[in-house]
Amino acid sequence: MEYSKCWLDYRPLESVEEVWLTLIVSCDGLIIESAVKEYVLAMEGMAGRKPTVTADEAAAGVRLLVDESIVSGTDGYHIIGEDGGYKIIGQSPSGVLYGVFHFLRMAANGELSQLPVENVPAMPLRMMNHWDNMDGSIERGYSGESFFYKDYEILWDERLEHYTRMMASIGINGIVINNVNVHEKETYLITDTYLQKVKQYADLFQRYGIKLYTSVNFAAPMELAGFDNCDPLEPQVAEWWKETTAHVYEVIPEFGGYLVKADSEGRPGPFTYGRTHADGANMLARALAPHGGIVIWRCFVYNCGQDWRDKKTDRARAAYDNFIHLDGCFDENVVLQIKNGPMDFQVREPVSPLFGALKKTNMILEVQIAQEYTGQQIDLCYLPPMWREILDFDTYAEGKGSTVSNIVRGAAYGQKFCGMAAVINTGNDKNWTGTDLAAANTYGYGRLAMEPAMSCETIAKEWTDLTLGAKVEKDVVDMLMKSWPTYEKYTSPLGIGWMVTPHYHYGPDIDGYEYDRWGTYHRADCNGLGVDRTPSGTGYTNQYNEPWRTIYADVEQCPQELLLFFHYIRYDYTLKSGKTLIQHIYDTHFEGVEEVEAMIAVWKSLQNRIAGEVYGRVLERMELQLANAKEWRDRVNTYFYRKSGVKDEKGRTIYE
Ligand code: GCV
Fold it and tell me: Is 509 in contact with 516 (CB distance < 8 Å)?
């Protein structure tokens, strides 16, 4: 099937340097072969000629070499201009590969005058999580079907290689190939039913410095081997995992490890046997340890059978309450994977308090590139600015400067296994990601995991230049940078979240989850709305270190964008902007729609500068976005007008 090359579409350049056309390779191995292949492919596209590949060190050209001593940090690289040529020196073969991708990016975007570059990937683990199921569907997938599976078979075609190259080019070094909700057939992925085919993927990934991981079913011993329990402290259960895991490594020596969703949304786990998550995780960790594997254990554990009448139980508290007492109880090769916020990938949430609380535990920050609650790859929502805020958030765990970024890079406590994971947004659509512009999120995630200090605007520029061309850079970057605030304006206000169509999660349904069991309430009445999470409410604010604990609990100090997350606020309360809460709701919803209209006008002005197919595909999505924004505006405004009885002071149309 034909597919778009995304940011690896090496288009002809107006001018090329002659030295690019000689590649001197002073190192070898599978990953180096991939680096060479990539370089050759890129030059064929950009220079229109195949470069000469030689081992002749006396030649002038671009030289690839490995030197373990060059940078302090794994897989780093230097790129330098020297003696009329260039040197790409990797600390390891992966470092060379990353260096080659970096060099090619700079060459394509005319940036080689900015050399030298010295870079060390910031996050040790830079993971992609696929929520692909073996029937071919993708949970929360918005761009077609899986390109890994169809009808319970493992697929194999050249698209897989392009995907792998894309991942390596943004620095990904771990891929989980199946959904965390492991259904019946996927349970067999770690058995001979599928292992040889999984190995094919693992071998491909390995050539690009990427390890393969699978999500596993905690109840696998019951489903696969007829056990009557999967109690992690039952020696036979542990033994089964050891043997099964040893066999996985026999077939795939480079296997990365397991990702586990346990005791969450109906998945099995240690709670059934009165055991802790540490018991469960350590049991698997001990099966993986002899082979150098790790277990990544998710903290998305909460009561999904809540009574909406109960105002004391607070889903936001759940991850912390379930894991804080286990700090220091996990084996060395266990990593806890923590969603960025305490709820579930909403357009605005505070940062999970666990990052500032666990001090003796490996942690991975989990974000969602798939736009489940942020427009489902129909609406434009460039997410790196959100991730940036999360990474920069100072938890004060060890005093000032204990940012999430420092914690998940391993700089705060020196953990070996830590980093970032993202639920990816790809599918088998021709353009991989629904709207073509959503690929900026895929790209941006990898770039931030490599270099969390990068500005999101620079990332947007890089992506735009590589994908759509420099001639539209200014307008597209501007569009991307405005898109998250715009999306936030026309959807749920001031951090309250949800208000979405149940289950499907696209489009508004203000009370859709209000009387349901999922713990996601806005508590609106005729006087105001919001959840009181202060000590006089659910007490959630106490999970933060100072000064956040005080700041969040105080209406006056609480950051406005999170006001309704932390407080119940009256409609007539005056915000810092001088507007009442109700007027703020009305204004932002009108503004959100106007901003989408303005964005569409800009996109239309680019018609002659963007390839027809991409132009039309994106425009089609933008028209849907506009309809969605209008629906949100009118439903939200009408809902709160009916609740409050307060008219819009600007007299705009709000339906009765
Ligand atoms: C994979 C949310 C999503 C589910 C997802 C779950 C999770 O609840 O709606 O589709 O399941 O998060 O992260 O495990």
Answer: no
Q: What token pair was written down for 375?
A: 């427009």
Which helix H or strand E contains 90, and what residues bound it? strand 85-90
The token duo for 109 is 């975007």
Q: Is 533 helix (H, G, I), strand (E, B) or coil?
A: coil
How many angstroms does the Cα of residue 307 sit away from the middle of ligand 1? Answer: 20
CA distance 467 to 105: 11
The residues annotated as belonging to the active site are 265, 344, 372
Residue 58: closest CA among 5, 111, 22? 22
Cα–Cα distance between 347 and 494 in angstroms, integer?
A: 10
- Cis geometry, peptide bond prior to residue 547 (ω within 30 degrees of 0): yes
Ligand 1 residue neighbourhood (C-beta within 6 Å)? 131, 139-140, 179-181, 261, 265, 300, 344, 372
Report which secondary-structure segment, H or E, holds 449. Answer: helix 439-450
Q: Exposed e or buried b for every residue in 4-14, given b needs 16+ CB within 10 A?
A: bebbbebeebe
For the four alpha carbons of 576, 581, 586 and 589, in that order, the dihedral sign comes to positive
Contact by Cβ (8 Å): 43, 21: yes
Q: Does position 1 have pLDDT exceeding 80, yes or no?
A: no
Span from the CA of 462 to the centroid of ligand 1 (angstroms): 31
124: its two tokens? 């040790």
CB atoms < 10 A from the CB of 504, how many?
11
pLDDT digit string (tens) for 340-392? 999 999 999 999 999 999 999 999 999 999 999 999 999 999 999 999 999 99
Is the CA virtual torsion 166, 168, 171, 173 positive or negative? positive
Cβ count within 10 A of residue 41: 15
Rounded Cα distance between 90 and 653, Å, is: 61
Mean pLDDT of the chain: 97
Residue 320: pLDDT band by 50, 70, 90 thresholds? very high
SS in 3 state form for 459-528? Answer: HHHHHHHHHCCHHHHHHHHHHHHHHHHHHHHHCCCCCCCCCECCCCCCCECCCCCCCCCCCCCCCCCCCE
Distance CA 620, CA 616 (A): 6
Helix (H, G, I), strand (E, B) or coil at 124: coil
Q: How far apart are CA 406 and CA 305, in angstroms?
A: 35
Which of 265, 267, 337, 372 gets mutated to test ligand 1 (max ligand atoms within 8 A of its CB)? 265
CA-CA-CA-CA torsion sign (627, 633, 636, 640) = negative
Which stretch of DSSP H or E encloses residue 648? none
Compute the distance between CA of residue 64 and CA of residue 477 in angstroms, rounded to an integer: 33
Q: Among 140, 215, 301, 506, which is best to mutate for testing ligand 1, by the most ligand atoms less than 8 A from CB?
A: 140
Is the CB of residue 101 less than 8 Å from the CB of residue 79? no
Euclidean distance between CA atoms 415 and 123, whole angstroms: 11
Whole-angstrom CA distances from 257 to 58, 293, 333 are 44, 5, 10
CA angle 51, 54, 56 (to 5 degrees): 135
Tokens representing 134 are 């073996």
Rounded to the nearest whole angstrom, what is the distance from the C-alpha of residue 550 to the centroid of ligand 1?
A: 31
* Total H helices, total E strands in the chain: 17, 18
Residue 521's pLDDT band, with cuts at 50, 70 and 90, is: very high
